[in-house]
Amino acid sequence: MMLVNLEKIKKTLKPGPMPADVKKQIQIINNLLNAQNIQSECVLGGSTAKNTNLKGDFDIDLFVKFDRKYKDQDISKILENAIQKLKPELVHGSRNYFQLRNTYTYEIVPVLDVKDEKQALNVTDMSPLHVQWVKEQTRRNNRLPDDIRLAKMFCKSAKVYGAESYLQGFSGHVLDILLAHYGNFENFIANVSKWPLNGQVVIDIEKHHKSPLKVLNRSKKTGPLIVVDPLQKERNAAAALSKQKYNVLIKRAKEYMQNPSERFFKAENISLVKVRKENIGAQVFSIQVKPLNEKKDVAGAKVKKIFDYIIASLKKNEFTVLSADWEFRPDNALLVFVVKDEILPLNKERRGPPLNAKYDVEKFKNKHLRTYTKNNRIFSEVKRDFRKPSKLFDDVITQKYVTEKCKSAKLKKQQ
Fold this sequence. Notes:
The protein is of the alpha+beta class and 415 residues long.
C-alpha cells in the first residue's frame, strides 16, 4: 500500500556527522568550568545527542551536568558566572538557562546529574536521562532514529510539531516515545489514523500503571493524548498537546493512508501568492508582526493571542472568515486572513434581554431610541462600526491589545 519511497526520504532528512564547531563549543565550556574547579560537565543533549535531529536543524542543546553536591545552590548563577566571557543571553524559565548564537543557536541548560526522577529537582534534570532512554531504544531497533525523523517531518508538514504554548503540538520527546512504542513510522501512521477524533488515547510504553487514568493526577489526564513518561511515571509527556492539533494529525494520517505521497514530508512556509491564487474572489489580508524580544515561547504566545483576537474581532463584526493561518519566527511573524469580499449593511441587529426581564428591558429602551420585539425578546438596530473588512484591519492593528503584544504590526496591501 505504501507507494512512497520512505528510504529515499529518510536519506534527505538525515544530517551529516556532528560539525567540529559543536565539539569545539562543548570543549570551550568545559574548559571554563574546569578553570573554576566546578564539578560539572557540558555534554551534547536533545535530538542531536539522540541522533534524531533533522538535516538543517541549527538549534543545539547542551546540558551542563552539575554534581549533586550543588543541589541546594543556584546552578544557573554558577553557570552564568563561569561562561560570562562568552556573553550568553539569559533566558528565564523554570530554571534559567542561556543562549549563544554563532553558526548554531546553542541552548546551554544547567541540570543536576541525577540517576532517576526521585533525585530530580527540576523537569530539565531528567533531560539527559531521556537521551539515554532513546539511545537504549535505538540499540534494540536501529531503524528508530530514521523513523523518528520521518514522524517529525510528517508533523512539521501538518503544522502540529512543537510543544511550545503557542503551538500546542507534538514535542520531539513525545514522538520519540510514540515511535518506540509503535516500532516504525508505518505502524505509527496506521495507528494514528485509527485514533478516535475528539477522543482520548492512552500509551504507557514501560507499563508503569495497570490503569493510568485511575492513577494519574486529574490535571495530567484531561488532554486527548496521555503518554506516560517512560522515566517519570507520574508525568503525561503529551500534556501540552491541544485537541485541535491531535485531530489534525489524525486527519492527516488518514489522508496519507489513502494516498501516500512525498508532499506529506514537505514543510512549506505560507505563500501569499498561493493563498491568493486559491482564493480568487475573496479578500486576502496579511499582517507582518515583529515579536517582542522575549523568550521564544512567550513571544510566540503573544503573537498567537493577536491572531486569535483578530479572528474574534472579524466574527464579532459579522465578517465571514473563510480561512486563516499564521507562522512564527523570532524576527517576524506572518498572519494571513481570507475574508469574504462583501460590504455589510449600514445597520445591524442588536439583541436585547427577554421581555420578562422588565428592568433590563427598560434599560435597553433608554439606551436605544427604536426597538422592536420578536420571539419574546427586545431588539434594536444600531449602526455598524465597520462595513468593510479593510476598515476593521486598519483599526485592529492600532488597538492596545495588539500593540502591547508586539514591536509592530503592519498590514500589507490586500488582494
